[in-house]
Amino acid sequence: MTDRTTISIDDPLFERLSADKPDGVSWTEYLEALADGENVPREPERTNALTADDVGMLKREIADEIEDRMTRR
């Protein structure tokens, strides 16, 4: 059996994590993916909004356009 640890977090944070955690993904898998900086598997109908951190993975001309739009908000 795997060793386990109980953690305590504030209710608002738990609610955010619970809403974000996809069905069919265990809490252990979900938290490991977050800790490793991996993308957590999502349901097909959910999308992730781009953030400034995502600009580096895009083609330069697309990244420039998105960055320009983000700064004009």
Describe the structure in your own words:
The chain is an all-alpha fold and 73 residues long. 42% of the residues lie in helices and 0% in strands. The chain is built from three helices and no strands. The mean pLDDT is 77. It comes from Halopelagius fulvigenes. This is CopG family transcriptional regulator.
Q: What is this structure, in a nutshell?
A:
The chain has 73 residues and is an all-alpha fold. The protein is 42% helix and 0% strand.
What descriptive keywords fit this protein?
73 residues; elongated
Helix-strand string: HHH
Work out the number of β strands. 0
Shape: elongated
Number of helices: 3
Helix content: 40-55%
The N- and C-terminal alpha carbons lie at a distance of 51 Å
Largest sheet: none
Mean pLDDT: 77
Estimated share of beta-strand residues: under 5%
User: What is the domain total for the residues?
Assistant: 2
How big is the Rg? Answer: 17 Å
- Structural classification: mainly alpha
Low-pLDDT regions: none
Protein name: CopG family transcriptional regulator
What's the arrangement of secondary structure elements?
Layout: H1 11-20, H2 27-35, H3 60-71
Organism: Halopelagius fulvigenes
Protein name: CopG family transcriptional regulator
